[in-house]
Amino acid sequence: MSETEIRDDRAAGRLEALGGDGEVVGHIEYFVLEAPGRALVPVHTIVEPAHEGQGIAGSLARELYGMAAREGVVVAPLCPYVVRWAERHPDEAPAADPDLLAAAEDWQRAHPERF
Fold this sequence. Notes:
There is one protein chain. This protein has three helices and five strands. By secondary structure, it is an alpha+beta fold. The longest helix has 16 residues, at 56-71. The N and C termini lie far apart (27 Å).
């Protein structure tokens, strides 16, 4: 994945992996939860079929947790892929508080048009 760049499009709620030609080859859709605490909440991880098996999803998950750490917030993962990735990388992906996860689920249910 050496030719892949990752960029955050916060306004769109997408962390994107770009191939060498600038094409989006994968992304994590997320939102920012404000209450009861600030958190990045990944909802979907998608890698284009032609780019699967290249470590793109893992790189996106790692960068999401890195962003959260740099911003001093937590990640409250709802995306099944990110949940599994976090379980395999507990040193990089601290567990989210259950109340924060419940609030993230409530927010997602209240905004079905978003995802």
